[in-house]
Design a protein that fits this description.
Layout: H1 5-12, H2 15-27, H3 35-41, H4 48-60, E1 64-66, E2 75-77, H5 81-95, H6 99-108, H7 112-123
Antiparallel strand pairs: 1-2
């Protein structure tokens, strides 16, 4: 039977989703991973060549680093998840015409736990 198998599902995912899956696999470990190891971490859903292409894109964007002194062809994230998320938030705020209004909208959507954490961070002097 024909069907769309794992390969068909992977092809329908956006480049951003694929990059996120590869980054998640790298963030889940403390050591650099080879493309084959990343492929296995994401359940072998993507073809090896697709994983390699995604890694090249992430490397070109400065989001992953090639492991220079370890195993050949291994990659590690350039930033942790929190750093990358914070950078994206700053970029989003700087794109709009009114960053204060955007920040205000963002804050109104926080959960009580997130709001409490933000208040604590601001009270500690984090600016």
């Amino acid at each position: 039977m024909g069907g769309t198998g794992a390969r068909g599902r992977a092809e329908r995912r956006s480049a951003g989703e694929l990059e996120s899956a590869v980054l998640a696999a790298l963030w889940a470990t403390e050591r650099p991973l080879t493309p084959a190891e990343i492929q296995a971490e994401i359940d072998g859903e993507l073809a090896y060549n697709t994983v390699h292409t995604i890694l090249k894109r992430l490397y070109d964007k400065g989001l992953v680093l090639r492991d220079a002194d370890g195993r050949r062809g291994a990659y590690r994230p350039a930033k942790n998840a929190a750093e990358l998320t914070a950078e994206a938030m700053h970029e989003a705020l700087n794109r709009g015409p009114d960053p204060i209004a955007a920040l205000q909208q963002f804050v109104t959507g926080l959960s009580p736990e997130e709001e409490r954490a933000l208040r604590e961070l601001l009270a500690e002097g984090g600016t």
